[in-house]
Design brief:
The chain has 246 residues and is mostly helical. It is built from 13 helices and no strands. The N terminus is likely disordered.
Length: 246
């Protein structure tokens, strides 16, 4: 995991942080490679936002989302959190803008194509709306399920069972908020992330000094802090929303 919050690919692929840096410095090859590597991510975000399966070459929302991802490459800086979280926000906003702009054109089509001889307009079939809403919920449930499965695999690398999380979570809100603040620091700072990813350990001494807490507190909440930090370091938008809302 690097400072952008992007998972590293296999060793034969370029470091995403290097590609992003090169792309922001005008390297079009690096920009195109980054877009190509993360097209599945872009399609996932766009499908979730539209609530339906998007077909390449058919649905214009895909082009809007890819342009938004390209925009995010240009606009991103290290102060905006992880790159994927930032790009997800840009994609979602651009799709909302697209829906708003397209609404007027859709109304014109409805007036021209659904008007009968008696000038009566037909309302959209309610079953269509139900089907679309149901499809959207199914897509979201599947995305959540896959995200949880992937998170469980990440936890296993640190010898933490998914079933342990409820047990190791601090019971008091103040303690939980403090642990989440520490986890944020671990996810945000390069040296802290390196200690966790490379050695599977928290930089306890540094955290104690930075947050002015006891060593016992950090060690007692070690698994919870690591679990939250891993959520923030990876592309887990549903889990991130759940943890940060709480």
């Amino acid at each position: 995991m690097n400072r952008l919050g992007i998972r590293f690919r296999r060793s034969d692929q370029a470091d995403p942080s290097t590609l992003l840096s090169r792309a922001q410095n005008g390297d079009m090859e690096a920009r195109n490679q980054l877009i190509q590597d993360y097209t599945p991510f872009v399609l996932k975000v766009a499908s979730q936002k539209t609530g339906r399966f998007l077909r390449p070459g058919v649905d214009e929302e895909i082009s809007v989302a890819l342009l938004a991802f390209n925009e995010a490459i240009t606009a991103y800086d290290g102060q905006r959190g992880s790159f994927l979280s930032f790009s997800q926000t840009v994609i979602q906003r651009r799709l909302v803008d697209y829906f708003r702009r397209d609404r007027g054109r859709q109304n014109e089509i409805a007036l021209s194509e659904f008007e009968e001889d008696d000038q009566t307009l037909h309302e959209p079939n309610p079953l269509d709306r139900v089907a679309q809403a149901t499809w959207g919920m199914q897509q979201e449930q599947e995305a959540r399920r896959l995200e949880i499965e992937e998170y469980a695999k990440v936890l296993q690398q640190f010898h933490i069972g998914f079933s342990e999380l409820a047990r190791v979570a601090p019971k008091h809100r103040d303690s939980r908020d403090r642990a989440i603040s520490i986890a944020r620091a671990v996810a945000r700072r390069e040296e802290y992330r390196r200690a966790l990813v490379n050695h599977g350990e928290l930089p306890v001494k540094s955290l104690v000094e930075e947050f002015q807490v006891s060593r016992k507190l950090v060690e007692r909440n070690r698994k919870y802090i690591i679990a939250v930090a891993l959520i923030l370091m990876h592309d887990f938008p549903y889990l991130q929303g759940y943890v940060l809302e709480r």
